[in-house]
Amino acid sequence: MDDVLITGMGVISHLGRGVDAFWKGLSAARSTPTTAADPFARMSLPLMYEVPAEDVPAGPERHGDLVLGRGSRLAVEAARQAVADAALEGVAPDRIAVVIGTGMGDSGLHEDWRSGTGPEGGHWSPTFSVASAVGSLFGAEGANSSVSNACAASGFGLSMAADLIRTGEADVVIAGGAEAYSRVALACFNRLGAIDPVRCRPFDLHRQGTLFGEGAGMVVLESASHARARSAPQVYAKLSGTGWSCDAFHTTAPEPTGAQISRAMREALAEAGADGDRVGCVIPHGTGTQLNDTVESQVLNEVLDGGRDAQAPVYSLKALLGHTGGAAAALAVVAAAQILHRKTVPPNIAPDEQDPACTIRLPLDEAPLEGEFVLVNAYAFGGNNVSLVLEEASA
């Protein structure tokens, strides 16, 4: 079975536009949420990590009759970067597929229309048209799929993209996730009482919930044989293992024993051929909600305890970006590929006081990567769990 390689990357987030800005932001380990710039955000805590106004793409505003919302525009921008990075010119269009995970799609566009602030005279557009917009704009004539199972969407999407390559359905897949500001999502978590009034602070003893962020992370996945045949300019990493599980324990709460998230992690590691002591870094789901952080911490220690001398370092990405919903796993995969490519684990934002129930290692200083693999976790409402394993690779 052909290996699945990452040959291009693109990103737009609270840290700015482009992979270099992303890595610079990770290395600086400084981030602050702001009040949502929305006059209709009439809720007690309208805090989030927004893409800076100067980095938000002005377009494309539409593609044919299809009006594109902020979610689609973020996805198109990140895909543009990834496609240019991979130098995909000359690849047969029918061998290129698109898979994008998004929990809210272009729901913000529909919210603007209902409030009278949307584009005038716009042709009605479906909420989940993100993948078709990207596929059409980049001439991808293979399968075009949007995955929308909440906060694990792009994790499932990336594993589906890898399967398209492994089964021979595509040579190249533009894959990732995108999530833009949505009043519905922010109001939902406000109503649940799951918004932290200070910042997103996973694994902190004083955490009181999560905070939303927005952005898009995209990668070009490519079969190793195809990458070699066209002399791909670079290979960042190999997507070598995926694992899915569903506990269906509760609509919004994680299953408290962690049995099913353990299953997803173990399946991904087994598929990658990775023992726990060879994992050099973990990018957790770690949202800052009480039960999620505690259960994931406990399971990580169980799964990765391979007789190693020290715990694998955990890199808490959401402490910097907020919880980017359906884009979270894709942004984590971009971070993981950069960690492998640069052989460096960025510093964490220091918790005010680490929760003693979350016995994981959160290094506060940049450090060399020790281990061949990076584990990425993503979980979602309804008990949708996915783990991905990346490793260093060459074409």
Would you count the extended β strands for me?
A: 17
Helix-strand makeup class: alpha+beta
Number of helices: 11
Silhouette: globular
Q: Radius of gyration, Cα only, in angstroms?
A: 19 Å
Determine the strand fraction and express it as a percent band.
15-25%
Query: Would you tell me which CATH topology of the largest domain applies?
Result: Peroxisomal Thiolase, Chain A, domain 1
Parts with pLDDT < 50 across at least 5 consecutive residues: none
Major beta sheet summary: 10 strands, mixed
What order do the SSEs take from the amino end to the carboxyl end, as H and E? EEHEEEEHEHHEHEHEEHEHEHHHEEEE
- The span between the termini is 15 Å
Residue-averaged pLDDT, rounded? Answer: 94
Please characterize this protein's 3D structure:
The protein has 395 residues and is of the alpha+beta class. The protein has two domains: 226 residues, Peroxisomal Thiolase, Chain A, domain 1 (3-Layer(aba) Sandwich); 151 residues, Thiolase/Chalcone synthase (Peroxisomal Thiolase, Chain A, domain 1, 3-Layer(aba) Sandwich), CATH 3.40.47. Helix content is 31%, strand content 22%. The protein has eleven helices and 17 strands. Strands 1, 2, 7, 8, 9, 11, 12, 13, 16 and 17 form a ten-stranded mixed beta sheet that branches. The protein has a three-stranded mixed beta sheet with strand order 3-4-10, with no helix packed on it. It has a two-stranded antiparallel sheet with strand order 5-6. The longest helix is centred in the first third of the chain and has 17 residues. The radius of gyration is 19 Å and the shape is globular. The chain starts with a strand and ends with a strand.
